[in-house]
């Protein structure tokens, strides 16, 4: 089930990448490299989810924990980058309230990732 969730997450991230790419062609608001870095980090996070799904915590704890670290850290950085992209594209493509909600989610995920690393 986690593998399928990781696949759907990757598909969603790629879709968001293409949407931002097209919007940026219409109205330039951010460097395309920023969007690409966000996509790559998001996909690495999805790969981390796949690692967590395929390596049991009790059988191979180092690999499982490494995958979890990838998933959490890359996922948090992905949400932060997407929040920044949203603010840069405001008000043309996003409302300010959407940007604030994305940043709030990013802040909560940043606060949650710190205890998971420790």
UniProtKB/TrEMBL annotation:
Superkingdom of origin organism: Eukaryota
GO biological process terms, semicolon-separated: regulation of autophagy
Source lineage: Eukaryota, Metazoa, Chordata, Craniata, Vertebrata
Family in the record: Belongs to the DRAM/TMEM150 family.
Segments passing through the bilayer: 33-55, 67-87
Residue intervals of the CWH43-like N-terminal domain: 1-117
Membrane topology type: Multi-pass membrane protein
Record protein name field: CWH43-like N-terminal domain-containing protein
InterPro entries, per database record: CWH43_N, DRAM/TMEM150_Autophagy_Mod
PANTHER family: DNA DAMAGE-REGULATED AUTOPHAGY MODULATOR PROTEIN 1, FASTING-INDUCIBLE INTEGRAL MEMBRANE PROTEIN TM6P1-RELATED
Compartment(s) of residence: Endomembrane system
Keywords of this entry: Membrane, Transmembrane, Transmembrane helix
Any one Gene Ontology cellular component term annotated for this protein: lysosome
